[in-house]
Every structure is written in C-alpha cells, then in structure tokens.
Amino acid sequence: MENILTQAKRVAEEAEVFTVSSEETPVQFEANRLKHIQSKQSTSVALRIIRQGKIGYATTTELGDTQNLVNNAVETAQFGMTARFELPSLTAYPKVDIFDPDVESIPVEEMVKLGEELITTVRGHTSDIVCEAGVTKSLISVHIINSRGGQANYKESIFSLGIEGHLIRDTDMLFVGESQSSCHPLLEPKAVAEVVLQQLELAKNRASIPTKSVPVIFTPMGVACALIPPLMTAFNGKIVLEGASPIGSKLGQPVFDEKLWLWDDSTLAYRPESRPCDDEGIPSQRTPLIEKGTVANFLYDLQTAALAHTRSTGNGSRNRGGLPAPAPSAFIIAPGNTTFDEMVNDIKEGLVVEYLMGATQGNILGGDFSGNVLLGYKVESGKIVGRVKDTMVSGNVYQLLKQITAIGSDVKWVGSFLNTPSIYCPSLSVASK
Amino acid sequence: MNWRFYKLALSMTHIEAIGRQLALKGYSADYVEVRLEESQTSRITYRGRELESIGKTSAIGGNVRALVRGGWGFVSFNNLDKLPGTVELAVKQAQFVGNEESQLAPVEPVVDTVSSQEKNPVAMPLAEKKQLLDEYNDIIWHTPRLQTSIISYDDSHKKVIFLNSSGSYIEQERSGITLRLTAVATEGSEVQQVGLNLGSSGDFSQIKGLHHQIEQMAQRAVELLSAPQVKGGEYTVVLDPVLAGVFVHEAFGHLSEADFVYENDRLREIMVLGKKFGGAELNIVDTATIPGLRGSYKYDDEGVPATKTYLIWEGKLVGRLHSRETAAKMKEKPTGNARAINYRYPPIVRMTNTYIEPRAASFDDIISDIKEGVYAKNWYGGMTSMEMFTFSAGEACMIRNGKLAETLRPVVLTGNVFTTLNNIDAIGNDLEMNQGGGCGKGVQSPLPVANGSPHIRIHHCLVGGR
Lengths: 433, 466
Ligand SMILES: [Zn+2]
Fold this sequence. Notes:
Number of domains of chain A: 2
Shape of chain A: globular
Radius of gyration of chain B: 24 Å
Number of strands of chain A: 21
Structural class of chain B: alpha+beta
Strand content of chain B: 35-45%
Shape of chain B: globular
Largest interface: A-B, 82 and 80 residues
Radius of gyration of chain A: 24 Å
Oligomer: heterodimer
Largest sheet of chain A: 6 strands, antiparallel
Bound molecules: zinc ion
C-alpha cells in the first residue's frame, strides 16, 4: 500500500489509497434443506489522486499491479472534476466497537444448526411452507492512507441470520420473511422465527379493502419499503447541492410532523453499518437530520461539502467501488409512546402495510411512491382481520409525514440500515381489484 | 485423492496460463468446475453541469464449484495462487452438505474459444466517450426550466475461462455498454424526472446520435410538472414496446426460471407444461442466440450451449429456463440459462433476451376502440414476487375515445400472473428490443439482459394513483 502511495506521489500532488479485504462464509438452505456452503475471499485497492488540481481514480484487485493502477488514475485525472477538498491529515477517531472475535470462531457446523433450527421452528407452525434460509459470517478489514499523513485502519465482524418462507395454496402465494444482522454472533434463531410466525398468524385469513383513502400503519418493514428510500435521497448533500431535493432549501424549517425525529448514526456499537471513520478517513458521527419535524442537516462527503461550503459529516461512501459520494450509514427514527395495538385499536377501517413491492420505482426524488401490498393486513373496528391482496397503495412521503397520527413504541432494526418504530398516518390512497 | 496441479513458474497471474494447466479430474466429487475471469471497466458520471466522476477498474478473480451427493461447495477468490487448495476446500464443503444423489443433466464436453464480436469499448479513448456525453448533457441543460441532469455511462470487457471435470474448456470474451440519462425538472418543492436507458453489447455507435431523443426527454420532464396524477383503479392499458418488454420479463420471465419451481411440489403442479396462461395469440420466447443483444452468449456459465426456448406458445406454457441441475431434477432438457454476474457468485437460472412475438395489429387498431384507458410508456423498473408483479412507466397519458389525450405523471401498474396474461387482448406488429435493462435476482444484480415486445393491450389492469 505504502508502495502505491509512493509511486502515486511521484505523479500527483495528493494521493489516497483505500484497501478493503473481506472473507465471507454463507451457509444456504433451499427448499427446507442445506444446499450450499460457500467461502468468498476478496481484496480490492482503490487509488484516488489529485493531479494538476483534478481528481483521478482507479481500482484493481491485483495488489502487484501498481503501475497499471497509477497509470489508470493519471489517465482519468485529465478529465476529472476539480478537487475542492483537502484529504484529512492524521486524525483521532471515536471508539466504535464493531469487531467480535467470536464471529470468526463459530464453526460452519454451528451455522448449519442455526439455519436448521430456524426452518424447523417456522415449519413447526405451518408444515407446508417452503423455506429458504441463510446464515452468514463475514470479516472485513479496511485500511486507508493518504499523502497528508492521514491513516485509518479497522476490522469489522458481521453475522447475519435470515429466512424467507413461501406458502402456496392453490394459486395463492404468500411470502413471509425476516433477517437480522449484528457484529456479534446471532445465536437465537427463535427471535428471528418469531417474527415470521407472527406474519403467518396475521395472514391466515383473507380480507379485502375497497378503492378509497384509509388510515394506514406502516410497520418498521413498511416504513423501510415506502418512506425511507425518498428520504435517503432527499438528505443526500449532493442532491441538495444540485437543487433536486424537495427539502434542500428548507434547512431549519418545519417540513414534517413535530413528532418526527431522524438521525444518521455510524457510531452505534456492534451495528454492521457502524465504523470509526468513513471511506475518506473522516471521523464517524451521529448527525441529526430531522429534529421535532424540522430539517436539521444534510449528509456530506469531502468534495460535496467543499462545494456546498460546509463540512463533511463523515458520510463519504465508496458504494460499488466508485469514488466517494455521500451516502447514509444507518437511519434512526426516534420511538413514540403509542403501542402497535393502540394504533390498531384506533382504526375503524384501515390498512397495516408490512411489505410494499415496487415502491422505489416511481419518482423517488419527488417523494412519490406507489406499490403492491405484498404483505399487509386489513383493520376493521380496531382489529386485524386478515391479509389483503391485489391491492395498491400510493402516496407522497412529504404529505404523509407532514401529519402523523402516532409514532409507535415498537422500535426494530430493519436490515442493518434502519432502526424505526411503526408510523401511523391518517390517510393513504388504496386501489384494489 | 490423486489430483494433479502444475503450479506455474511464472509469477504473472494470467488466467489463460493458469486455466490451461489446471486439471479437475480425480477429486472425490461428482462434479467440479472452475471459472477464471479478467475484466476491465470504465465509468463516467455527470451530476449537473459538470462531469462528476471518472474511473477505471481492472479485476482478476475466480471460483471453484463442486458437487458431492447433491450438495454444493463454492469458493471465490482474487488470489489465484492458492487455486489447488481452493478446489479441495470446495470439495470438502460439498461433501459436508451432500446427502442424496447428485443430478446434472448430461451435456457434451466442449472445447472452444469465443472472441468478442465487438471492439473492446474500455480501450477507446476516454476523450471520445466524454465528448459524446458532454453533447448530451448540453442538450439537457439547454432545456428551459430544467433543474439538473444525471448521466451514467459504464462499459466493460471481460474474458472468462470455464473448465470442468467432464473435460470442457471454454474461453469467452464479452463486452457491454450501458448509458442512463435522467433529466430533472423542479418547481417549488415539486420534482419530476424522466429517464432514458440504453445499452449495447459493446458497440459504441449504438449510443451515438441520440440528440433528438434526449431533447424530447428533457422537455417531457418539464411538462410533467404541470401534469395530473392518474386516478387509481382498473383501466384498459396499452404498453409501448419498452414497457411491454419489462412486463414480459417481470410478469412471466422470472416465474419460468426453473430454480423457483424444481424443488417445490405445489409450484410444479401449478407450473405444469400445457397449462393455459394467455390467449392463442401469445408467444413468449427467451433466447441468448441473437447476435448483438446484451443477453446473448454462446455458452452459459456451466458451459451449456445457448438455445432458443419458447416459454409460452399460443397461450400455453411449453417450456422453462434451466440450469443443468434443475433440468435433471425436472427431467427436462437443459436450456443454457445458468448465469453468474461475476466470479464472486455461482451461476443460477436467469433470463437472457426475453420477448413477446409480434402479431398483426397496428397501433391504431390497438387504441381505436378504447373509450377511457391509459397509454404507458418507457421504463422505471419492475419487480416480481412470482404471483404478483409491479412495473412502472416513465411516461403515461390518458386514452380517450380512441385518441391519445392528456399527459399523466408516471404510473405504477400491477398484476397477477394467473390473470393478467389472459387479459392481453391485442398484440401489435412492431417488435422492438430494449437493451437498457439490468436484471436482479437475490444478490446478483445487475445482469445484462434484453427485453422486447410489440405494443400490447391489457384490459382490467390495476393502476396505482390518487
Ligand atoms: Zn429481473
């Protein structure tokens, strides 16, 4: 690595070398039984240079091929964007615990047992369900050095446990599922299975809902499908800078219901999205995005922050191996004090949305979403009466979150990127067959 | 275990040199295969007025897959030096998993070298690529009331070596180009966007000369600011060839992938060959054999030759897409549809180029007797859960009394595979293939595919709206 930096410094004013290597062991079950054990090793090096004031970029998986890497970076720098930022010098990082040595030492045999237990529990409830399950452990190590003496080094462990069940009765298909991840080993498959059992219980009966507007509860999973993708775009400093974010000019203004609080946080202990610094070596932080309904901040990397005359929030991310760009780490929505049952009890006729298919295919920038309710339940007179089908819902995130009836006390992690309670809104358009 | 492996004296990790020396016979496995891959890509993005990022990548890597008593082991790596140990690890994993009989449809071993039909687009001067993108971006920025533009251009070239324990040894080269352009218009806190997605199997000239199309795209984004949203409900819907291509991919293509079906007894009953899904005019095809399309190849990632497979013939289910394992377990013929996005993943059953065959109706025939309907065009995306699917149109307008009427905001449509295909009551004569799409399945995304169709009409289609 040092050697790449040295060679790059000969042809460029500034240089930064980012290396990530990972080892991943997925254990996969198909059709209720063990099918695949895999082991994946990968290494890649990314070189970013500033040459004649412009940014050049190249990556490779071949550690030995330094000359080609430097040449590619120099070639792209002719056309690159003018660099407006300075790479960080040696910086102190917050202590963020994301490595548990126990993950590495879990034997494959035990991972197989966890998967089997997951499937057995779900099939114990519904014997004709067909399950796919996955148990995965990963170890990641990241190393950053730059020409200003900046340096970062960290190791992370991730363990994940997931199941998807598929139940067919005649030509009716029901999908249920849950997955959880952590930097600790997850050794309680019952906790994951429990979520699936609850979905199966609620979906036992069928119900239908007419084409009209009704009150709606988005479960944490529903929040993740419908409401979060537009917000992740809208708070991206780059979209704001381009003038394409509907809230870009609303900093300090009340845009959302005052019950709503949202943070981006990459410092939570033992969470897979946490880390001591971002992919440019900027210290991790907790950034308030919505405080009491008011727009509080946007997310930045170094270059975008410089263009916007502000500071990086430590959100520089090399998604898909490209140049750093602003990206959220984990979104955290503050819980309210209404229980899920209290919300359901409050509804005369309405809908609980658990999984929405196709919601991210519309005009995300504008906050519009529209999707098929793949898993959702009808509420009648304060009770969940059954699962709805052939039903579409449509709305706009900014209109929905302007007036929230209640925020749940039922916070939960959805994947690794969102921690949220259920959100109860007064009205959503439903179209059904 | 009397495996043979000749370690190279050369320190150079050239995949051909390694591949030609590797022998896979003699392991205690029912089947072993190795894929080695060398690839280069370049990527240019614009956000707004300026070029945002430009970069080049090169990668080398490989994998080993082993089958023992029905269980699979798979190891992927960037470091090719440890290859013999890697083969043993994959075999050991498979031994741990397997507890039944291995089943793979028989395929003749192949020794072949397939070079790319196109020039390597990655090797083209960056200046030439940038100049075209600059021209396109200028057009978008010359549109009044336009807020910003997003452009991403990607090209790739790769060489893949496949060898297996039955004696196949195949070298294949592939290239690809994708270009996505989005124009964003704003007014107050209203934001609207229109996109254009294009691709080719490496031929750069196919993304040249789009100036007029891009100008129209940018103008449409501005028009959408004042367009109404459709009222949600059931409509007679006409799909343009681009969107109908997405429809056939989502509505039926994924369900015809045999890995969903082969180990699920209920699904096997539902998806029995001969079952009626649509009207007598409906033919649906998947084929990787058409030169120049992004989903085309000579051999799939299990070394099986590409075929042309009718999925639906005259409305009835007549075929499905297979890997060697799904074909054997369903006692059908392999179709050469096992594909992996790269060496980090094992091949799984995927589509290639999927389309509805054209019939006789002209566009006027299709819309002339519609009193109130929706004409949906262009492509935002699509998803399926097999039974239910959604697909979204980038552009739409109402059809009133047989004529195209007011412009609408983009619409999302949904359907049910067991009823919607039956509701297709007109198929046009104007088949077009779209090359701009990428398909995702599980974690493997995006895979190059092409979709196509003539204009089609669907009655009783559910459209989301307010
Ligand atoms: Zn797809």
